[in-house]
Specification:
alpha/beta, Rossmann fold, N-(1-d-carboxylethyl)-l-norvaline Dehydrogenase, domain 2, Single alpha-helices involved in coiled-coils or other helix-helix interfaces, seven-stranded mixed β-sheet, three-stranded antiparallel β-sheet
Length: 510
């Protein structure tokens, strides 16, 4: 903090929805901010909002008309936070700050949705000019205003300067219950509890973790949508009825932000048509790329994350709206059986359990991917801490994350969440209904790619023997790719000369 009113503690560049709300959050927590945006209207709007919120209290935010003016308003060494679109805009701002006279010990923090490898390159590119630091932010505009989940990574020295700022503005969790401590009172942030901000590791690690968070988010959303689809199409339920089911589920193990907002969306009526809003929303999903990045990364490191990938594919096939409408008139599906009320009640219970088990598998895939990437990059990721900071502030926040935290606190070397005793017991209890729900959806011709892939992941992971033995035989046949034997030391490779008439007797080590 500063004792000189004319100087500011933090510079903030980029006053879109996220930037504006992060700036107000910082101001609520006692920081004095110098802000800049290329759009003067955004500066004026922020200053007006600050004035309205603080009343007669002294101004907390100072508007600037240039990068040079912004630097002149800050205490040295400077701490500057960016909230600009990922990609070239980040470098555009960094180059302007260099021209404006930024110093080598100043810190620039990128809070945008940057690709993690870009952050790694930027740290190298700007070394000696200033300290480039990255922080991934989750929670949307409400989280930014009242407490986001923050995933910082970069220079450890920079973290010592940034840590008190991030822990002040982050979402807070009750350490006893693991539940979010929420305040949406302007100017009165939550100051108690565990902050949802922890140092992730070297630069890029935080954005990688956020990328996987978003991949899990894709899967979680798709799983919920598949449960909705089955209730709508197979059980003939209205959006209001499904909303009531989701609200009931939100009281138990499925308690989460995404279930909560799904119920709200389903309850919303469209004022123009007086229909449920969901029925007038075009069924063509958008995406910004982070789910795709997660799926690509999983393929690159060889980590099975098929539920995340299927969620990306589900958005892709939704974009083929005209083709799907045409195909719906030509391609036959199964006859849908009539269900009794008792059967419908049982089906809803099966769907609940299927959603829960599939969710466990989606998170298991995400944490497994982070583990494999961590080993490849030489990072040391603390998965208990990562699960902790996702308990509040972020989009996938859920009571379920406390169980993940507990699992990793009990076993830091846990190779897969599915092997944690708690989750072993949970899936053993609910898997029969999981299988029944997927069978019901399939028999009714309702796609459930994410749920099915989650079950396939579980069954593949628990399989002591997979048909990859035949696959290796095929590869050796057409490409001489060799294979290993179960009765020989691991690592030794063998090849059959398949073109040799005497091949049953011909075995060549490679």
């Amino acid at each position: 903090m500063t004792d000189t009113p004319q100087q500011c503690d933090i510079g903030f560049i980029g006053l879109g929805v996220m930037g504006k709300n992060l700036t107000l959050n910082l101001a609520d927590n006692g920081y004095r901010i110098a802000c800049f945006d290329l759009d003067q209207d955004k500066i004026d709007a922020l200053l007006a909002q600050d004035e309205a919120e603080r009343g007669d209290a002294p101004a907390r935010i100072v508007g600037c008309r240039s990068y040079t003016e912004l630097l002149s308003k800050l205490n040295a060494p400077h701490l500057i936070i960016l909230s600009v679109p990922a990609g070239d805009p980040v470098d555009h701002v960094c180059h302007h700050l260099i021209d404006a006279g930024i110093q080598a010990d100043d810190i620039v923090v990128d809070t945008g949705n940057s690709l993690w490898t870009d952050s790694v390159e930027r740290e190298k590119q700007y070394k000696g000019k200033f300290i480039f630091f990255s922080t991934a932010v989750s929670g949307g505009e409400i989280g930014a205003r009242f407490g986001p989940s923050l995933m910082p990574s970069g220079d450890p020295y920079a973290w010592t300067r940034i840590e008190p700022v991030w822990k002040a503005i982050a979402a807070k969790v009750d350490p006893t219950t693991g539940k979010p401590l929420v305040s949406q009172t302007i100017g009165k942030p939550v100051t108690e509890g565990e902050p949802c901000a922890t140092y992730i590791g070297p630069v890029g690690a935080g954005h990688y973790v956020k990328m996987v968070h978003n991949g899990i988010e894709y899967a979680d959303m798709q799983l919920i949508c598949e449960a909705y689809h089955v209730m709508r199409e197979a059980l003939g339920m209205t959006p209001q009825e499904i909303a009531a089911i989701f609200r009931d589920w939100n009281e138990g193990e499925l308690n989460s932000y995404l279930i909560e907002i799904s119920a709200e969306v389903l309850e919303q009526q469209d004022p123009e048509s007086d229909q449920p809003l969901v029925d007038v929303i075009l069924d063509r999903a958008g995406q910004k790329g982070t789910g795709l990045w997660t799926a690509v990364s999983a393929l690159q490191v060889g980590s099975p994350a098929q539920t995340i990938a299927q969620a990306v594919f589900a958005r892709s096939i939704s974009s083929l709206k005209a083709e799907r409408v045409h195909a719906s008139a030509m391609l036959a599906g199964p006859a849908k059986p009539e269900l009794t009320d008792e059967q419908k009640h049982a089906a809803i219970e099966q769907l609940r359990d299927a959603l829960y088990c599939s969710k466990i598998c989606a998170y298991a895939q995400g944490f497994q991917l982070m583990d494999m990437a961590s080993k490849e990059q030489g990072w040391t990721l603390d998965f208990a801490e990562i699960a902790k900071i996702w308990r509040a502030g972020c989009i996938i926040r859920a009571v379920f994350l406390q169980s993940i935290t507990n699992a990793y606190e009990q076993d830091e070397e846990l190779p897969n969440l599915l092997l944690a005793p708690f989750f072993v017991e949970q899936i053993a209890r609910y898997q029969a209904n999981w299988r029944q729900a997927i069978a019901m959806a399939t028999l009714n011709g309702i796609p459930c790619a994410a749920m099915s892939s989650a079950l396939n992941y579980y069954d593949s992971y628990r399989a002591g023997v997979l048909p990859a033995n035949l696959l290796q035989g095929q590869r050796d046949y057409f490409g001489a790719h060799t294979f290993q034997r179960v009765d020989k030391p691991e690592g030794k490779k063998f090849h059959i000369e398949w073109s040799d008439p005497a091949r049953p007797q011909v075995m060549i080590k490679k």
